[in-house]
Amino acid sequence: MRCLWFETMLGLALAQSTATSNLRLRRSIVVKDSFHRSYCSKVESATSFSGLSLSKISAGVDQPKNAPLIMETLGTTIITVTAGLLGKADMSPGLKALGVAAVLMPLIHAGARVSGANYNPSISVALLLLGKMPPAQCLFYISCQLVGALIGGVLTKVLLPQGAMDPSSVGTIATCVPEALFSFALILTALQTTVSKSQSRNSFFGSAISIVVFLGVAFGAGMNPAVAGGLFAGAGHQKGLLARTILPLIMTFPAAFFFRLTDIDETYAREMGLVPSVSAAFVRAYGPYLIELVGSFLLTTTIGLALVTKNLPIPLAAGLALTFLAFGSGYVSGAHLNPAVSLGVYLRNARRIRMQKLAGYASIQVLGALASGAMLRYVVGAGALEGRYSVPRAVISCGQAFAVEALFTCMMVSTILHINASTGYQGNQCNGLVVGLALMGGLLITDVVGGGC
């Protein structure tokens, strides 16, 4: 009896000990697992690409401390040599711009995780204004960019002894307007696609930035004070230097402030910087309208510059402009930039856009287009804008022109509605390109018969 009692108690003790050990083991596993998840999330957050700031990109990356400075110097040198050589090449402005953009895009992707791929003092200053980059780091970056541009200017001078830049037309109002507008567009697009938390982990940042550079260079804008300074130094010119260097730097202030006015995440940003912050209520209420206003202005201006300069086909310029605007600002307002698109969104889902918002969008889009037209009329004169869009053309009737316009407007609006409403397209990185191609194709076809409106 005692033996039986002893065996029973021994069994219970062993069972209790085993259960206690298992419980401790489970707790240990849970603690370790939670620690592992927390650690992984911190590492993933530290190493994720969420902006141009070096402190966010290179964290956790095994690389030399001076690698970002070397990357900025090398990248700016390559861009300067590219711009200098293509500047003297016997080819159309569109092909020259394509060459610059084709070199810039791989450089952006190559240097994004090393230095942030600024390659431009205006970008670094914009990050400084927003508090995304420390002053000392900004100073080092700009110094390296200037050194790289100077090296590039000297190399271009060696390769092209005749000089790399002809600044005879630089400084006139007709060249200052593209310089200022596309510098603003470049800085804003860079901030929207690389700094905004709403667009973190996107893969189109390089494409969007390169498209802006392509359009700007095609219309005579430099948008990079360092590159312009290096080329002017290599060519030995001074005329027009201030226009090429000061204007892009001046445009960093309105671009950074506009980004803070329209990006909801900036209202909660810890880094205040030198740009004043605004309330979240203001950004939610007025941010989309500001985006539609400025976007319509930039889109119309791009079409007008293509019309006046004839450096790019109008459908190509318009389609690419809509592409970078959709990539950059689509997360804020949807990048409608067209009353027909806003009406289509309203008819499909009245809960998504109310009648009041529809009226506001349409009004602000028309206002932006009118402001652009007035600006172009003042800069280039009314005569340069006349004669291109005679609608309808003499060979067709108004009814035929209306039918073509209606058909391809329906195609574009339907495309936008499907890629935005379908769950299968949510998060698709190509949506901006699809929208731009829809506009480009529609303009190409309607231009044949109806004037391309």
Please, could you describe this protein's structure?
The protein has helices at 2-47, 54-57, 67-87, 93-111, 121-129, 135-159, 173-194, 205-218, 225-235, 241-250, 252-262, 280-309, 314-333, 339-348, 355-380, 398-421, 431-449. With 453 residues, it is an all-alpha fold. The chain has a domain at 68-251: Up-down Bundle (Glycerol uptake facilitator protein), CATH 1.20.1080. Helix 5 packs across helix 7 (173-194), helix 7 runs antiparallel to helix 8 (205-218) and helix 8 crosses helix 13. It is globular and about 60 Å long. The termini are far apart.
Describe this structure in a few short sentences.
It contains 17 helices and no strands. With 453 residues, the protein is mainly alpha-helical.
Key descriptive features of the protein:
single chain; 453 residues; mainly alpha; globular; disordered N terminus; Aquaporin-like; MIP; MIP_CS
Write the layout of secondary structure elements.
Layout: H1 2-47, H2 54-57, H3 67-87, H4 93-111, H5 121-129, H6 135-159, H7 173-194, H8 205-218, H9 225-235, H10 241-250, H11 252-262, H12 280-309, H13 314-333, H14 339-348, H15 355-380, H16 398-421, H17 431-449
